[in-house]
Design goal:
Elements lengths: L1 E5 L2 E4 L2 E8 L2 E6 L2 E4 H18 L2 H16 L8 H24 L2
Antiparallel strand pairs: 1-2, 2-3, 3-4, 4-5
Length: 106
Amino acid sequence: MFMRESQGVYEFGQRRVAVKVEKDNIKVRVGGGFLSIDEFIDQYTPEQLTKLEARNPLKRFAEKVAVQSHLVGKERIESTPIKRSQTARSDLQSEASMRSIASSNI
């Protein structure tokens, strides 16, 4: 997850951090102090993964569809042009049959 931007500056997920090597230990600048690389990864990896998952458009779409299907329940509401044209066609056919029945009764 570390991407180098320049000397001593890396991007960790969506966070830009300063990194230095001190006595064979890697230190990451956080706030006014430094954390060891292990402490930094343990502390900030869950936060960055959560942010990345939140930005995933496919996951957000799947969650939205799940919520909509839950709200609608068993009744499914279709909003595709194909369904609308089939419904409109059946309405016209039933209207035409009603007219033919009415004209045959006259």
